[in-house]
User: Fold this.
Amino acid sequence: MDRGRLTSNDRKHKVPRGTFATMEQQPLILVTNDDGIFAPGIRTLAEEMTAFGRVMVVAPDKPQSAMGHAITIHSFLRLQSVHLMDGVEAWSCTGTPVDCVKLAIYKLLGGNKPDLLVSGVNHGANISINVLYSGTMSAAVEGAMEGIPSIGFSLMDHAIEADLSQVRPVIRSVVANTFKHGMAPGTCLNVNVPRNDGAPLKGIRVCRQAKANYKDEFETRLDPSNKEYYWMRGAFESEEQGHDTDVHAVNNRYVSIVPTQFDMTAHHAIAALNTWDHALG
Assistant:
């Protein structure tokens, strides 16, 4: 079955074992994040998802920002049932966002796949190169690797008390369209919403990832024992002015949607590499 285009008949046969088996047969939506299970962003996302189907939340028990696609292999993992909101099964996990996705599928759901995976709402931007460092987006990429339509949502405001009101209609629109149209196999969506500065959003733009990077700096500090340690700092710098990028979109108060894939092959470089002399002797 093509997980990118689930039909109503497909969903009837995807009711997971265990807790949800006796509930009304609706799409199952897995919600996760990297800011931690009690971050306001994930509660907002879970609340919005209840309008689309049954919701399971599995998220880190503490902030896991910038963990990328890390998984836990040299330590144990724990799951703890928590109360997040009425009618939603929620679990905290001692691991990374990707650990949360794996445990949800292979432990809590017994190998069954949810109909949709949503990650966020991240407190902070995941535009451009941030997608490689982001635990939020790595959870969505993991979902795509499992053949699950997956979306990462981010608000460009790091404040824990950030105003999430403008994110809610974006979530509803993108998720509704995902259920209606499906998603290309091997991809997920990276959605970034400008912070609420009082001005309305201008709309939604499908974009490409901008070429940008961080100008890293390391500040030297002293601990209480007078020993040096380093604190990474840096400024985000865009290398281009293209109007079709996620950076340009959010800077002009548009929501950006970037289709993202886990195949990191540089296909455009293959032809040139095949001209090299690859003799071994």
Residues 8-209+243-273 form a domain with the Stationary-phase Survival Protein Sure Homolog; Chain: A, fold (CATH 3.40.1210.10).
